[in-house]
Amino acid sequence: MVATQPPMHLSGHCVCPSDPQFVEEKGIRAEDLVIGALESAFQECDEVIGRELEASGQAGGCTALVAMSLQGKLYVANAGDSRAILVRRNEVRPLSSEFTPETERQRIQQLAFVYPELLAGEFTRLEFPRRLKGDDLGQKVLFRDHHMSGWSYKCVEKSDLKYPLIHGQGRQARLLGTLAVSRGLGDHQLRVLDTNIQLKPFLLSVPQVTVLDVDQLEPQEDDLVVMATDGLWDVLSNEQVARLVRSFLPGNQEDPHRLKHKE
What we know:
PPM-type_phosphatase-like_dom; Protein phosphatase 1M; three-stranded antiparallel sheet; [pyruvate dehydrogenase (acetyl-transferring)]-phosphatase activity; 24% helix; PPM-type-like_dom_sf; alpha+beta; PP2C
């Protein structure tokens, strides 16, 4: 992107005569290359983690939150339930969204619809307001499937009594009764307890990338980005964090390490 003559006519150079037309028709911008690079980097990192964990016989995974400044723009890439916010004097702006079984319900259900073998006959992909019991057989209950943003009714069948693909609400929501996040890195060998059902097919490593035009923002000296895992956001709101930051910064202007985490 920053080369004098990048390919595909992003800066006046073209590989073939039709390149400028194709790039223009697709609406491809320079920032799309950065977004694509971040998405590819997360995917490649996940593959490396998988190989290293397998070679070492270890298991594990994590979420990932990245902020990168390039050519007057701030790119925030998030895969998981971490969060980044921009704190300004009179504004708090979210720079990412959390990915949980609830927020990605339709994507997860769609995957189970296309590949039902991933559930090994042990789970139902349908969502119900509560866990169904034997007494519910034949009764009409509310439900929703991968193609639905609203709710509808169905008569309960025996297959509906299986454990739901996504169960619980809010912080208690779990994917296959195990994970509280729907995006992240690693966990290639993670399986549902006492089964051979893998969670990795449902755990997406590709991040959502938010772009902030810093030049248009006219940043001030006290503007900053707060990045943290759910350990912070589970107990404090965006506004509470912003108030803490604003109360702390004015009295620490001379401290060169005032923005660094201290144990």
